[in-house]
Amino acid sequence: MSARILGVLDRKVLRDLWRMRGQVIAIALVAAAGVSLQVSMGGLTVSLSETRAAYYERYRFADLWAPVVRAPLPLAMELRAIDGVASVETRITAPVLFELGGEGPPPSGFVHSLPQDGSQPAVNALHLAEGRLPAPGSSDEVVVLDSFASAHGLHPGDSLTLTLAGRRENVTISGVVLSPEWIYAIAPGQLAPDPALFGVIWMNEAGVAAATGMSGAFNEAVVRLMRGASEPAVRAALDQALAPYGAAGAYGRREQVSDAFVSAEIDQMRTMTRMMPPIFLIVAAFLVNIVVSRMVAVEREQIGLLRAFGYTPLQIAGHYLKFASVIALLGLAAGAALGAWLGDAMAGMLADYYHFPFLLFGLDPGGYALAGALALGAVMLGAAGAVRRASRLTPADAMRPPAPADYSRGLGARLIAFRQIDHQSRMVLRQLLRFPLRAGLTGAGLTASAALLVCAFYFADAVEVMVEEYFTLANRQDLSVHLADQRAMGALDALTARPGVMEIEPFRAEPVRLRFGHHEILTALTGVVDDPRLARLTGKRGETIAPVPGGLVLSRDLADRLGAGAGDTVLAALTRGARPELELQVIATPQTWVGSGAQMRLDDLNRALGEGDVINGAVLRMDAREAGALYAELKDAPAVAGMQFNAEARATFREIMDETMGTVIGAFILFACVIALGVAYNAVRVSMAERERELASLRVLGFSRGDVSYILLAEAALITLAALPVGLLAGAGLAWTLSLSMDSDVFRLPFMISPASYGYAGLILIMSVVLSGALVRRRIDRLDMVKVLKTRE
């Protein structure tokens, strides 16, 4: 039955696949690696983007935030009348400290007010995970962000003690919620989320207003825009309407911390999807080209016989294309399964940091179709040249052996003629010179493997630089204390007198719009002491870049967004107090890898605002032995709105990086090894297939297994040694490209690769090639000399 169903050439395809199963599997695994990356990263990009879009739409995520000092509630009607505004929610937002017992660092966060009637907000609605919203009219019930509740085991019905505007409040948890504006729940100025130390709660407006003295007023408006509305125009109208009430300046989603992190994640996944899968599929195309070209060369006479018996060029081409297509289909099937598993695992990992009501990995049929088209297209492209040569062979040409290569001329002949080169080495060099294209393609595959290995270790190096720069060089404080409002400089003395405080520096951070030319950005302008030692911006050698009188130190990312450089004069429009506009000369643009920075002298900032010697925070170093006593006093201090702890932030960031980057680096190393094994194994197997008779003859003449193995494996060794430095250099180029393409407003990847990373990459590549050589060496040891010598060339 099978003989009648399958044609002669189809049965030959199956025999060839089984006979060359090792090479077929190796190529299919390389293709599968590319397909799995396309499926997993492409699917995650689509899933995260669509989940975010659906969540934002369903829960009415804001387009604009407009903080003010204090504005009357009736003003909301005027804001709703602005052209382009779809809906407005006015609310009270305030910092809060949580009292959860114990001697550890106290958690801090924010409280947002809810409509007093118990309804959902018109903007930034909440998703109830447990319980219910606070009852209408209640002032002592709250709902808690799910990440904070999970970190502390909080559930509806539990009691919670907090400090709000200097007043201690005992409240009852009525529900646990998720919020579209806290998908990535991170404290301001922090690098990584720490749900144990940062939380958000919501309570009815009356309770927040009573505690903060904001009855009949609001201090933040959140706005949704109509479809097609001009965001800059609406923002300008909001600023104008709220200016008399101490507006800090409206900002959009780009400046909203949670959305900025999610957007950066999506952009990075999109970059990886564009850059990584093509590398694997191109290597798979190389390997298919080598294998099919060898098949066509060996089966030259059979092709001639088939043509003589009436088989058309199209049938001959179809035969070899079927062989290649089976490889593509095997790679596609394995890659699709691996990609689905990998994507689902990564979605679970992302769900630990990005809190959606749901986040399921899914790829529509179009995504799988794209992966299949890429895999099939790459493999077919690799086979195209050899297939074209096979289909063009005429019976007469095919039955006549090809003319032997001429090695009597050229540089290669002169190299081989050196008496210092032994006979086995000459045979190795002759084989390389006979098939330079194959050697070049093999070298290209090993180069790609080395480049991926360098890129994998680059991520670890980049993270190490980020951690060192942010937590050790730039931010050397143990604790950052944020005050509830502006306080006279005397507040610094009160903090200095606390137990365990060893060194302290005040600061004042105010919202500002920086303008240069046609560019404008909203950021925080920080006034610092003349020679900051704890929280500072640093130069290339770790030195402090301190602001000078009338000068502005601007981080490189902000300077690039403005198009400004050192020596340029930037207009700084402060949005508090008298709202002065300052002309500040940019004195330096130091590189920051995490966040942004704009600093001027504290005295200059206070003088410009005309409010005396005022601060709203301080950074300090403390004696670890007095940490418990210091935390206890700061928790009870009514002026303290929040605290950030450097050691805890560093540990949390390390934990996240170890999990996420560890997974990425492990996958990169695994896939790079797949390429190296596939390329080296195929190259040696093809060479062995061509030279079995020659190698068997050498064994009959008395050459040892080691001598014969050297002839075969030295070729792969030479190609590896030639490809290794090129691969390391290509890896540096790939890492540099990634460092540029993965920049975001949140963080930048530094381009830094340690010598150890190059060493590890080279060692892993060599070990992969040695392993593939060991697999082929076993076949050499089992070589049947009599059978091979009886076989016609």
TrEMBL record:
Coiled coil: none
Entry's localization field: Cell membrane
Any one GO cellular component localisation term in the record: plasma membrane protein complex
Residues in ABC3 transporter permease C-terminal domain copies: 279-395, 667-780
Amino-acid biosynthesis found in the keyword field: no
GO biological process: lipoprotein localization to outer membrane
Keywords assigned by UniProt, alphabetized: Cell membrane, Membrane, Transmembrane, Transmembrane helix
Membrane-crossing residue ranges in chain numbering: 279-298, 319-342, 367-387, 435-460, 664-684, 708-738, 758-776
Main location: membrane
Pfam families assigned: FtsX
Top-level taxon of origin: Bacteria
Protein topology in the membrane: Multi-pass membrane protein
Family: Belongs to the ABC-4 integral membrane protein family. LolC/E subfamily.
Name of protein: ABC transporter permease
Organism field: Alkalicaulis satelles
